[in-house]
Fold these 2 entries.
Entry 1:
Amino acid sequence: MTENTEVAIELKNVKKTFGEGVNVLNGVNLQIPKGKITVIIGFSGAGKSVTLKHILGLLKPNEGTVKVLGQDLSTLNERELNDLRKRFGMLFQSAALFDDLSSIENVAFPIREFKRKMGNDEVLKLAQERLKVVGLSTGDYEKYPSELSGGMRKRVGLARALALEPEILLYDEPTTGLDPIISEMVDKLIVDTHHHRPGITSVIISHDLPSAFKIADYIAMLDGGKVRLFGTPKDFFASQDPFINKFVKKARDQE
Amino acid sequence: MEEAVIEKKGNFITQSVSSLGELIIGGIGDLGEMSSFIWTSLAWITRPPFRFKEILEQIEFVGNKSVFIICLSSLFTGMVFALQTYSAFHMVNSDTLIGPTVALALTRELGPVLTGIIVAGRAGAAMSAQLGTMRVTEQIDALEVMGVNPKQFLVMPRIVACVIAMPLLAAVFDFVGNIGSYFLSTRLLNIDAATYLAKIDFFTRPKDILQGLIKAAVFGFIFSTIGTHKGFGTTNGARGVGIATNETVVLSSILILVSDYFLSAIIKMILY
């Protein structure tokens, strides 16, 4: 990675232990570049979700630092952390939509929360725009999450994550559990969203290897609580590491 | 909380004592965690945004939607209490004391306690079920990641709403219960209506009503903190939600009855 690329998220020697000596993160060093699509891959238990939670500030490391958009999370108080969180949007694995609100109200929720001076009509108009961008049909705007299919829920979840025009977009296992056709749709959605907003940083946590190699600008591979390799897909194909080779072969086989 | 690994060596006695110790330490730890939960949630009352909309919505859910069941329960409670006290008072020819006896029993005890148990079962269970479901579907994480503090948005309005709505509901219980007793006594048991009402007036004081309302507020605080705390801490999917809801109702009911005794004792010391 070149020196003059700006860094959106930086983890320095992050270590995290749970319970009695369960070392989930053993010194993670990661620099996620601004404006690119970075996919963090790894097998189950390698520490992907835990890394994500550290980036979001939901967990604090036992050792090491986490810097997001230049700010060290451990130096922020609750209000400052909340302010920082407004600058990123997250799509949860199950979309995590509020089930007592309709699709459009779900998207309107962060807008209402943080742009209190906006009138109701303006808020709804903005929410509609976001839903249009993710390709949800107008007939589904008033539907509740329980009435939507999995793919539609992800769209609404993405629209909600984009509501306040975040600088960083995080995706937690976006294609896990989805059939190949919907997975491809989600991949396309991620890439389109990224290019629709110049400058946005997209970070995807996944163990969908073919997707990762297809859409990523950079890939970070987590293994045993450490970053085994960070680079472009080309770097991965060219690697001499037998573990990486096995990984790459598996991805190719799955396509 | 990290659990200390205690090697179980030694004989039965040392093992029992160390198990007891673990239980107590664990219990105190849980109590501390819950106190911290309550404290951090309530601290949000004074910090903007003030969440009036959410508080009002919760008052409607806990209060308005409980009115019917409270009226129905209290009507029959008043009636049956009048019926049963009649047997005793009739023997000593003091029928007219039924009025104040029922009134005092309702305002001091039955009103707040039964309201507490009924509403805990209704609204307290709903709180733990809803928050528990939100927890296992990552909706609470979504709020946090969005920059909205979940304790301020979800927990605080529920606790505040219960403390406000419960005394009001207890008052409804007191009133409707007395109506039930009045009609039973005067129509069925042939007690003179004027005397019935006059005796209530003679024996019942504002402090009798007030203490019931204060108790009701305390019970509201009890089941709302238990319900929200259990909901927030739910794990293990749907099964976990069921367990949390069950524990909420059981624990709330027990604590309401236990605290009722201590509250009554304290009130007796202060007011009488």
Note: Chain B has nine helices and no strands.
Entry 2:
Amino acid sequence: MPEPTLVVRGGSVVGPAGLARADVAVAGVDIVAVAASIDAPTGALVLDATGCLVGPGLVDLHTHLRQPGREEAETIETGARAAALGGFTAIVAMPNTEPPIDSAGVASEVLALGLGCMAEVSVAGAITVGRAGQALAPLAELAALGVALFTDDGAGVQDGALMRRALDYAKGLGVTLAQHCEDAGLAAGGAMHEGDWSSRLGIPGMPAAAEEAMVARDIALSRLTGAPVHFLHMSTAGSVDLIRRAKEEGLAVTAEAAPHHMLLTHALVAGYDPVFKVNPPLRTDEDVAAVIAGLCDGTIDAIATDHAPHAPESKDLPFNEAPPGMLGLQTALPIAWEVLSPRIGPERIFALLSTQPAVIAKLTSTDPHGAGHSAQGGPVEAGAPANLCVFDPGATTVVDPAGLASRSRNTPYAGRTFAGAVRHTVLRGEPVVIDATAQR
Amino acid sequence: MTGTQHLLSVADLGPQGIAEVLHVAEAFAEVERRSMPKVPTLRGKVVATLFFEESTRTRLSFETAAKRLSADVLSLAVASSSVKKGESLRDTVETVEAMGIDAIIIRHSSAGAPHQVARWVERAHVVNAGDGWHEHPTQALLDCFTVRQVLAERKGAAPDELGISCFEDLRVLIVGDVRHSRVARSEVLAYTALGAHVTLAAPGSLLPPSLEGWPVEVATDLDTALADADVVSLLRLQAERGSGSFVPSLREYTAGWGLTARRAERLADHAIVTHPGPMVRGVEIASDVADLPCTVVTQQVANGIAVRMAILFLLLGGELPGIAEVPAVA
Amino acid sequence: MAERERSHTRPLGGVFVAHSQVLTSSDVLRALTRMAHEVVERNGGVDDVVLVGLQTGGVPLATKMAEILRQIEAVDTLAVGSLDVAFYRDDIGLRPVLPEAVTDIPVDLAGKVVVLVDDVLFTGRTIRAALNALNDFGRAKSIQLAVMVDRGHRELPIRPDFVGKNLPTRREEMVDVGEDGVWIGSLEDK
């Protein structure tokens, strides 16, 4: 065994079957040993993981890095730093940048900018040119760069025929199309969930049906074409039910949910603070309960942050005019822990935040995009790349917008405290976060 | 009293607050009747009107109210076409406040804009002159004031003697585009706070998506509801807010929901008809019905100034009972 | 009730607790009668005289004085008005103030002799506000001031023309003129 350069000592390693008290030894970029007690040679860095869970680095299927085009809100570098502080070692950048990631040129630029950042940056391509929903983007050209996931996120593909064609084409390429389910006609003009709060507050609403209509359509299209469909940010009880039945039928569908849809409801819009404006919107208590149930029973495969930074001046607009979106990278694991640990074990929580997203995004083998990328999603075992998230359930996360690594401040959790905090993050053997502090 | 008071929603006032506003408005109505209808009460204060939606009538009403109180008036009629989308409302407001403004009267197409403005200002008082579909508090207050005035005239009493007891069990029927109407929301809150019974009548597509928690009934038959009503509040079909496409045609709307001459005959003798204006004769109200003595639109307009004077006086010179302070953002 | 000074107005309010009586109700009536005669003497009759009672304490006094004047001058009518000075106060914004009651000036005051009637004269600020208000109802030929009690502590150069009783007081005391006479007391919290 090569000499360890880094030892993560005293924690409980999260494996697919459960927890095991073990130290983890890292040499270079790989894990070299996972054993009950490992001596650290002099010169090796020791990270104290007493009382902590040591799991695979988290993987975010759904991050908005805003670069190119809106660097005042976030850059790839600042987004990756926020990710690392949140325990993520890999993030998938959404294509709704300016210009959008609908060509090899922009995809290459983003991948290049992502090299050497504090988390591995992969890229999702757009399904249609300009995300305009009219013509297919060059999916094959992008796939050749290693892009495995495609979406017009920010909008759904409205034209059923076009979506069907895209699925047929994608199936042949072995890539997965992901849908932001929003029927533009039904949702038009809406700024929050349509229901008793929107009626009271006088804000135009987006009914749950706007999401569910497209979920139902794309499930039917998956059945028709045999192509896999991944459903982004599921937010309604109806959507969760549709996914559950589709899975029972054996269709190739996967789904994700965002932390805010596990926790927050539309009642928070009462103060008209645009920090609570998001798409899909915050919904009802029943919807939140259904999302949680879906995460617990396997209907929803992954937690994805939908981290959506917006510069303060844009969130200072009147509610109807402000852009939707919330930060999420640094609070995802604490929220998941707080909401789900009473119901499911830590191995299932890490599966939702690391292993399963890695599978959906096809990041489980080394170098999916070429140099600088490693296999993500665990398991934490000798021979695997050292991508680790060390989480202390006994600590607390206090959310201070000014203290976040993001360039933006639009977190809906300002001033809140969550049980549990990320202590260390290791990226390809390098400790990028030690004691909740970024090392670069 | 610490913190700054604002008038953002009728709900903030409660019955006591509404009673106080009506009482003070009565005194200003007397001022209005003088040959020199001006008092020095707010001399040296500066009131700014920020109207992001064009509305000559309401803006003039507020400006007249401020001038009658001897306040200085700054008028920023920022019609939506001249404001770049994305131009920061916050910047505009902070600039205006830096000029030493005591009150900001704001009308905006987005619900909640006055609430956001109230969080950004440090000392100016914010008055909601209409925010999107949400509320139009002073309109509801002047409607209540007008109704009380009419009821008092009929009894031969002074309105102040009636207090707010005259609203107890009053049957109010609100007809029209409730879904998109800020006047409707404010009226529901005001009338129910005062103990009246409110019924809504509208085509299904013009009711709010959810009436959960609304202390109202919904009329299934407009003609019966009209006969039962003490007060009928007619709403305008809000074409500029897109409500035109919610009904097949204006003709169908009028046939089903307009206060035609035939329907007006079903009104009780004592019924009062209000309308926030501007009336579209022939659509929600027939032209001759608009001129009937029971239709009190011109009184509403005149009373609007007295009620707005009362609001400005209470916010800048006194204290509005029951108003919760809006905490400033960090 | 007693004074209109800032600490005593609605909605803060308070309860007046009487300590000692200064004038009985008959004393008050006698003083009012004497003042009425002084008004007649000063103005050579009651032609063009309009009484304006300040809300709320001055109004019953003005009404009573008008009755007396009608008797002694044998006239059928004498114009009486009431005035609430809430909107003319100089401490608006410092203290919550609400109008108490009706302002009703039934005649144009141009060319008239206005006799302002109030119960207690204290700092003079209420009278100053009343002078401003009266200006808006027409240019009076002259304005005279009749008060039942002058308790001193003037803050402005205001002086009464007709006084029921001069009553030196301490600043923190309160004076109440009512149906049962004139009392000195204090203001307690409700």
Note: The longest helix of chain C spans residues 25-43.
